[in-house]
Amino acid sequence: MLTALPAAVLAGVLIGVVMGALGGGGAVLLVPVLALGFGVDAVPATTMSLVVVGISSLVSAWSSGRRGLVDARMAGAFVLCGVLGSALGTRLSHLVDGDLLLAMFGGLLLVIAALMVRRGRDAGASDPGVPVHRGQPDAEDSMLDGAAAPAGSHRVAHRTRWGRLVGAATGVSLLTGFFGVGGGFAIVPALTLLLRVPMRVAVGTSLLVIAGNCLTSLVWRWPTLARLDWPLTVALTVSMVVGGLLGGRVGRRVPAPRLQLAFGILLVLVAAVTLVQTLRG
Question: Do 83 and 215 contact (CB within 8 A), yes or no?
Answer without folding.
Answer: no
